[in-house]
């Protein structure tokens, strides 16, 4: 998989994870363990994306 495809795939996953996180935060609150876990997963995806772009 080339970097262009990896970037697009990661961007898609980031968008989806962000939507899921906001929905969890709306339902459970920002400090709920489920929301925090989702936030950490989003951070991981963002770090991977940044690593590809660097």
From TrEMBL:
SUPFAM superfamilies: BAS1536-like. Gene3D superfamilies: Helix-loop-helix DNA-binding domain. This is Aspartyl-phosphate phosphatase Spo0E family protein.
């Amino acid at each position: 998989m080339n970097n262009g495809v990896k970037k697009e795939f990661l961007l898609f996953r980031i968008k989806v994870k962000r939507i899921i996180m906001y929905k969890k935060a709306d339902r459970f609150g920002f400090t709920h363990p489920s929301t925090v876990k989702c936030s950490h997963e989003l951070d991981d995806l963002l770090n991977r994306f940044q690593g590809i772009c660097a």
